[in-house]
Amino acid sequence: MRIAATLATAGVLLAAGDLPVWVTEKAADVTISARVILDKEAQVQAVGSDLNRQYVIVEVKLVPRGGYPVTMTREDFLLRSARDAEKSTAESPERIAGSAVLVLGEGGQSRPIYSQSGDPVFVGGFPGTGGRPRRLGSEDTFGAPAGATEAAVAPSKAKETPLLGTLQEKEVRLGEIRKPVTGLLYFPVDPKQKVKNLWLHYKGAGGTADLHFR
What is the pTM of this model? Predict the structure, then answer.
């Protein structure tokens, strides 16, 4: 396995022929360019892991328009597969490689879900028990403020791991952006499919945009 060193801003170094071409769309206040990282070796090269082949990695470039800052969140981005209608908002590094868990009481009754952040909560997948990640709470929170899910979320400690640190470092900088930023987003969507099946939808403070990968 090859692990790349660095790439200015994004922290990703991949040969030009390793990835699909960039697609670009303009929302009202931000220009979004993106390309997907589906190939196992390309994912290893990008973050040092294939994420147990449970995630699609999307590299994005975000450029504010009109000279005004724009606020970006993970919940602004939805990745959808036209193949089977699978979809998900972007997931935090802590939910991928942290130690938050779903606690089950006697008889299988759900107790509160513990997470380090107010992100949508998923159970299963990497590094869970081997199943596909499934979202707890409403699927209708795309474009809504962080924490607007039905799942009860409370703070907990996330165990620091090398993978967690890498995912955090290479994630695109979110929050208020005033200048172009480049980085990664992680989606619990099956990566074992064709690029042309995938759409990235943006709906947030900067407007709306739909990007179809090819």
Answer: 0.70
